[in-house]
Amino acid sequence: MRTIEHHDVTVRVRYAETDQMGVVYHANYLVWFEVGRVELMRALGAEYKQMEVEDDCRIVVTEAHCRYLYPAKYDEVLRIRAHVAESKNRLIRFSYEVFRDSDAQLLATGGTTHIICGSNGRPKLLPEKYRAIFGALEAHDHKRSKA
Amino acid sequence: MRTIEHHDVTVRVRYAETDQMGVVYHANYLVWFEVGRVELMRALGAEYKQMEVEDDCRIVVTEAHCRYLYPAKYDEVLRIRAHVAESKNRLIRFSYEVFRDSDAQLLATGGTTHIICGSNGRPKLLPEKYRAIFGALEAHDHKRSKA
Amino acid sequence: MRTIEHHDVTVRVRYAETDQMGVVYHANYLVWFEVGRVELMRALGAEYKQMEVEDDCRIVVTEAHCRYLYPAKYDEVLRIRAHVAESKNRLIRFSYEVFRDSDAQLLATGGTTHIICGSNGRPKLLPEKYRAIFGALEAHDHKRSKA
Amino acid sequence: MRTIEHHDVTVRVRYAETDQMGVVYHANYLVWFEVGRVELMRALGAEYKQMEVEDDCRIVVTEAHCRYLYPAKYDEVLRIRAHVAESKNRLIRFSYEVFRDSDAQLLATGGTTHIICGSNGRPKLLPEKYRAIFGALEAHDHKRSKA
Questions:
Q1: In terms of CA atoms, which chain C residue is nearest residue D67?
Q2: Contact flag C34-B49 (C-beta cutoff 8 Å)
Q3: Residues of D designated catalytic
Q4: Residues of chain D contacting C121 with CB distance shorter than 8 Å
Q5: In this structure, is residue B1 part of a structural domain?
Q6: B33/B81 Cα distance (integer angstroms)
Q7: Does position D134 have pLDDT exceeding 90, yes or no?
Q8: Residue % of chain C over a pLDDT of 70
């Protein structure tokens, strides 16, 4: 059983992502959450591209939120940390933290909720092989949070 | 005293805003919320560009969330409805609804929380003239919600 | 025969489109070109959404260029003017001008070249009905440029 | 004298960068060019963030173009190669190639032209220290192309 509790990936802030306040425009954090989520899944053995193509599983966002604590700035290297917060047959929740890599300052936290849909747009069950991956992880987190 | 309860603005979905699921990428809703918020403020007599330039007031996002009910699709005209949900001396909350304009189908709801900062990045009080504008509006909403 | 020589559409600059130089990030002009092109096509009777769905015609970008003369700024209303520069059986060229609407200052010019592909990704001929629309327009422009 | 002829950096295609054709939306290549340009400059010893802050030098885009040969797709790792194509006292040109990293397939080529401006928006001379860096590089390329 896998015991990855979270996965980190770094991104460097692009000029395109800044706005005229001189900091990152807030919507871009949702894009970084996507990067974090996809790399967490890859680390767990679930390549999202394959899920779409081979298993007709699209992980559709039904809710997203973000709290902004300190602004991310141009050219900074950020560490995006993603966790599986909850995993059920039809629903997955991820949570995220965004750190400035140079000093580990926490810049933002957030979460996204997803349902599984086929290419026809209809909700479906997460295939067994993915449930084993995410469920194991979530169970692990659950036990940890009780401790 | 103004009694605008909300303000609507329409946008047409751009190809750039879609993703390979054939629907709008979820982070773009936060951009539309920005469009809705700015047009609500303009309708209330508070032009955001002026706030930055003349009053050294930046409305900084500290929290954003969105619930996605139905996907927005390419070339659809959307109606972005923005409200002042709460207005205090140092904090403003807006709430939003995104409708498909053709049939008034509600596609998404959300909210953002903001503090006021100067160009030095320090929090400051919302100037009196804006408090009058937003506060009147918020009070109005409050009474309405009690009714 | 249609004789529309160009079509104008206005957009208002979003905060999301600015960068920390305090002006619009240059890649966004290509998005506005898309807006201009699609509205020109709509004005000519060729709705791009329909072309994809009903005629299996995707207008794929093979080249894009832009010259930036004056910066576009936050909250400005811009006028995007699009022309059909050339129309052949397998290729369409559009050209664009971006004006600041308040004083008609020209901010940028550019162009895009497109081929027609089916959903299988293979190049194909532009269907006759669209050739009539674009070709008529292009011929018209051609005669005008000789005058 | 430095003799770096080009610099490579890799990016992984984000879902946010795709569109409903199932490929990357074309404007995003300009963002990748920015990433390539900034990393080339960093490799040469010219950190762009420092140029803005310490030397009041903004490298403003005056022209950009891109030719699209093969589509980039979701989750692909791309290799962005940037060159200094020309360097003068007031102007720098960069050129770019975008390769699919897995098989070195060339996907796109392009270029950007830049002038140097102060934070007041006025053109200025590129400071001597940067001219040495870029000029050396450009001269090198020039000799090479004659060989």
A1: C63
A2: no
A3: 19
A4: 71
A5: no
A6: 8
A7: no
A8: 89
Full 3-state SS string of C66-101: EEECCCCCCCCEEEEEEEEEEECCCEEEEEEEEEEC
What are the tokens at B111? 């909210």
Q: Are B44 and D44 in contact (CB under 8 A)?
A: no
- Counting the structural domains of chain A, the total is 1
B103 assigned to active site: no
Closest to A83 (Cα-Cα) out of A92, A72, A74: A92
User: Which chain D residues are within 8 Å of B15, Cβ to Cβ?
Assistant: 19-20, 25
Tell me which of A41 and A137 has the higher pLDDT: A41
Residue D57: which CATH number? 3.10.129.10
Report d(CA B72, CA C96) in Å as an integer: 28
Q: What is the ipTM of this complex?
A: 0.91
- Alpha-carbon distance D37 to C58, whole Å? 31
pLDDT tens for each residue of A64-84: 999 999 999 999 999 999 999
Percentage of chain A beyond pLDDT 90 is 78
Task: Give me chain C's average pLDDT, please.
Answer: 90
- The verdict on residue A92 lying in a domain is yes
pLDDT value for A146: 44
Tell me whether residue C1 is in a domain.
Answer: no
User: What SS3 class is residue B104?
Assistant: coil
| Chains linked to B by 3 or more Cβ pairs within 8 Å | A, C, D
Q: Flag if D60 and C27 touch (Cβ within 8 Å).
A: no
On whether residue C2 sits in a domain, the answer given is: no
Q: Which domain holds residue C19?
A: 7-146
Are B48 and C75 within 8 A, CB to CB? yes
